[in-house]
Design a protein that fits this description.
This protein has 6 helices and 4 strands. The chain is α+β, with helices and mostly antiparallel strands. The chain is elongated, with a radius of gyration of 37 Å.
């Protein structure tokens, strides 16, 4: 005899049979629907309940929220990292500008390249000047400075100087290495090379470099 408090409905499909059971005699909150898919041979294939479905939905939502939280944390950390790199770079840059303000002859030469460097190397304490680029290179190896910021604010202070008078600075560095060791001014040389690679990659041609290179070439010819 059919139970007046329950209703069965069978639905056939290509995957099997879906049977829905509705139980009465309980509060609305306790009403439970079961969907059971059966294979043609009668084996249970899947059993889903709305309560379980809600648990699955909550689990997915929690996973999504955790992912969003992790992304926000990563973005904040990345922003802090970029800020720290900028701070390190500008700190060295500020120190360099202060040094130049106390070495006016050297500063004038850097933006004119109107004479040879070697006769004035010790007089201008040029070793200290190169030391700022050594510091930047050390920070860069530890990933504490940003390459683009370094190029933007420091390339005018290194590239033209390195290339001045037909690469006079390189010859000075080579001589120091012969006398003192191969690692002397390694940062200066590597930083120069990286700046030139960056220029080549970005297709950058700074007029100031080209103009100063021509002037320094004429100085070299008049030696």
């Amino acid at each position: 005899m059919e139970n007046p408090h329950s209703h069965n409905m069978a639905i056939g499909n290509s995957f099997g049979t879906a049977t829905a059971h509705c139980y009465h005699g309980c509060s609305q909150a306790d009403v439970e629907y079961e969907v059971m898919l059966k294979q043609p041979d009668g084996d249970n294939f899947l059993l889903l309940k709305p309560g379980r479905q809600k648990m699955v939905d909550i689990s997915i939502l929690q996973t999504v929220l955790i992912g969003i939280g992790a992304l926000i944390a990563w973005l904040q950390l990345r922003r802090m990292n970029l800020q720290a790199k900028a701070d390190f770079t500008y700190r060295v840059y500020d120190d360099l500008l202060k040094w130049l303000s106390n070495h006016k002859e050297c500063r004038k030469w850097i933006f004119s390249l109107d004479t040879l460097l070697k006769p004035n190397f010790d007089k201008w304490e040029f070793d200290d000047y190169l030391g700022y680029f050594e510091t930047i290179w050390s920070l860069k190896k530890k990933r504490l400075v940003d390459k683009e910021i370094v190029y933007d604010i420091l390339s005018d202070y290194l590239i033209s100087v390195y290339e001045a008078n037909d690469f006079e600075l390189k010859r000075i560095i080579d001589k120091v290495r012969d006398d003192e060791g191969k690692d002397f001014y390694e940062g200066v040389e590597n930083l120069y090379k990286e700046m030139k690679q960056y220029e080549s990659k970005k297709g950058i041609v700074k007029r100031i470099h080209a103009d100063l290179a021509k002037k320094s070439a004429s100085n070299r010819a008049s030696e």
